[in-house]
Amino acid sequence: MSHKSNNNTVRLALLLGLFSTLGPFTIDMYLPAFPQIVKQFGTTASLVQLSLTACLLGLGVGQLVMGSLSDVHGRRKPLLISMAIYVAASVACAISPSIWLLILSRLVQGFVASAGIVISRAIARDMFSGHELTKFFSMLLLVGNLGPLVAPVTGSGVLAVSSWVGVFVALSLLGIYLLAMTKWKLQETLPVERRSPSNFVQQLRNYGSLLRDRSFTGYMLAQGIMIAGVFAYVSGTPFIYQNIYGVSPTVFALLFGSNGISLIIGSQLVGRMAHRVSEQTFLQLGLWIAAAASVTVLLVAYFHGPLYALVIPLVFFVASIGITSTAAFPLAMESQGHMAGSAAALMGVIPFLLGAVVSPLVGIAGEDTAVPLGVIILCTSAIAMLSYFLLVKKGVKKADSGEEKQATV
Length: 409
Fold this sequence. Notes:
Belongs to the major facilitator superfamily. Bcr/CmlA family. By secondary structure, this protein is mainly alpha-helical.
């Protein structure tokens, strides 16, 4: 690859990475404001967590819609419209007079924010394949994963000079910037001749075809269920760190941000070593690290261990997400170039839908225990591992066995 071509690739990764950060910023930036929002509306922690659930639900369902639309209408048009609606939804969050209107506005905000996630990944598949896709996706994640690192710190900075309302004003400004980037910087990557027909039934058939693909489904579930565990962490740690361990919003942001660094390290490890170590090997490594880390978190939570004893395994757990996500995405997308938008949508919808389910469960036992968090991330790690070994590894063994029988005949 020439120097000029490499520079163009880096610029594209930076641009698409900006769109990928919209999801993390939408989710994470208002997390330090949870206790403030509880007091503002005179409500409960679980109801405030429901606003996060609504956002995650919107992000999940929205990806299915945006992925299909981008396969039919190209990548730019759906992204332009979504960014415009995102700005309006962010303003609606800022001026919400009640918790229920905030929850509704968060649902819309998450729905349109999903376009940035799914369409940026579809563009990546439009342009790359094989190990090149793995390397490019790791660069994309390098930028995108800065969202979880920067968002809570930015949110704390806004809260230092404003109320929680200022967080959503800042998100509306981010939406305006991304709208401008879509209009003037992003080129269309899906030519008309490669687009899917504008047929709802055909779109459903595309999703059905993907779900019948054993390997694709295994990779999708392994990645998606793992990320759902992170959403439990995202929902639970604002209360665990601040209420149980008594840290300040600033310290919480720093602790939360440290896990953003571990996420980046995990994803970059896969990208850097893609030509030496297979994606399959990295995926299995990430699953085993997650299992070990989640067991440790549960034990620390059960025995009320010190803060550092909880933070360290959580750092490893989040790092395992960077490893598994970066390895599973190219493995799943490799044979889906003809419907990359739909495939990327399914890869994205599972974590958000499951995240919407598990997020409120973290607070089911109250705000003074971290045990539910340990139980949830242990369950997600175990189910993700089972999904991989039963659907992908078992399927590979069956295929190899079938080839051997044919060769014998």
